[in-house]
Amino acid sequence: MKLDIKWLGFFAIAFGVFASVTEQTSAQILVPKVTDHFELSLPHAQWIMLAYILTVCALFMPLGKIADKIGRKPIFLTGLITLMLGGIIGSIATTYSVILIAKVIAGFGGASIEANGMAMIADVFGRKQRGKAMGLYMSIIGFSAIAGPLIGGYLTNIYNWRALFIFNVILCGLGIIIALIIFRNKELNIQPNQITGAFSFDWRGGFLSTATLLIFLLVITFGNQEGWTSLYISSGIFLCLLLFFLFIWQEKTTKDPLLDLNFFKIKTFSLSVTTRFLAFLSMSFSGFLMPFYLIQIMGFTTTTVGVLLAPGALSMAIIGPFSGQLSDKIGTKWLNAFGMAISGSALIFLAYLNINSSITAILLGLTLQGCGAGIFMSPNNSAIMNSIDSSHFGIGSGFMNLIRATASLSGIAIATTIVVITMTQLNFEPNLSNITDSSDNGIKLSFISGMKNSFTIAGFIMYVSAIISIIRGEPKSMNNS
User: Fold this and answer.
1) For 41, how many CA atoms within 13 A lie in the half-sphere containing its CB?
2) What mean pLDDT, rounded, does the chain reach?
3) What letter does residue 301 receive in the DSSP assignment?
4) Are 128 and 331 in contact (CB under 8 A)?
5) Which CATH superfamily, name and number, covers 259-476?
6) Hey, what's the torsion of the CAs at 98, 100, 102, 105, to 10 degrees?
7) pLDDT tens sequence across 277-292
8) H-type helices in 26-95, by residue range?
9) Which CATH superfamily is domain 1-188 in?
10) Structure pTM?
11) What are the tens digits of pLDDT across the range 313-336?
């Protein structure tokens, strides 16, 4: 296969992923505007985000598995079409309910694209180039995460919130045209339809996994709000565990499981997935708490905060491809460990921020964390994908995205709990509006204490992950093409 064909394929895949990620990240701007337009309460407003997140997480594995069977191209294209349909519905929505429907439809599209994007990259690029390609793929996600809020802010300032939906419709339309043109090339090595007889799918496993994830994510989201010992949350935890064990039993006993549990017998796969979960868990601590620190404690405007947060994401996006390319030559485990150690050190550094910290110190900590993440992510992705057969890249990619999403939401819940407990122990009500409104530095210092405890714990979790990365070894690739 000619190299230019590979990179044309990469461009088509990356464009679709860019459309999906910007749709998701621009929601940071969309939600406040829609909330004002429809005069929504905060509980109602959060469901605009949750409708998308829950749908995406619930469908990552089923859509990845289906793509392994019927081919990745049709699922990827269906995702772009569905994402565009969600944008069309959202742009003409006249009620809050229609907005939710649009986000659910868009969530289906996002899951179809993101569950297959990494798998398609792994298909197109063999083992010798996979790290580099994975690094560039992560750069696309990084730049998309930055572009989403910037584009969203510009469009809503010039026009209104409907322009965000219209922009995504245009983006998806272009993505469909590009994909249809480039995917027609028969030299592009993307897994085709594998079905030789009747189509079979683990529907029971799909239902159990979806139900388990939905309940888990709802428990994680509302645990602090309702109280972890409340009847609703306790019942949710019990039901989640019950469904999880039923899912494991189903996957062990069915002939064609949704998630092959034998993957976890592969040392490199299981330990790489573990470190991936711990890494995203830890990084979400700072991702969630730093904006509150910068706005409520330091008093920066949202525009300034956007500028302060950008270098971390940019450093991750820039370093990722170099780390991925280096992992193709020297292996993945030491880069994984080194990246996690840097991120852990950055979190420990951020734990010592206070009310008088300088912008230089803030930028240093966030940039260092971004560098560590950039060094870690591409080799980690390569290690996981290289440890399974190419026929399972779809479910592997979907599972990796699921790990990222569930770890991030779990990290937010844990970080919030630590801050709440710390502020309560210091006799301050853990209410963020009180921090903004109060002239008393005591409540601000109590929040900083909670943030310090959170970041310290997150840093040590990163160090543990680095040790796990060292002992896991290198993947014995099942696909050496």
Assistant:
1) 2
2) 85
3) -
4) no
5) MFS general substrate transporter like domains (1.20.1250.20)
6) -130
7) 999 999 989 888 888 7
8) 27-38, 42-70, 72-91
9) MFS general substrate transporter like domains (1.20.1250.20)
10) 0.81
11) 888 888 888 888 888 888 888 899
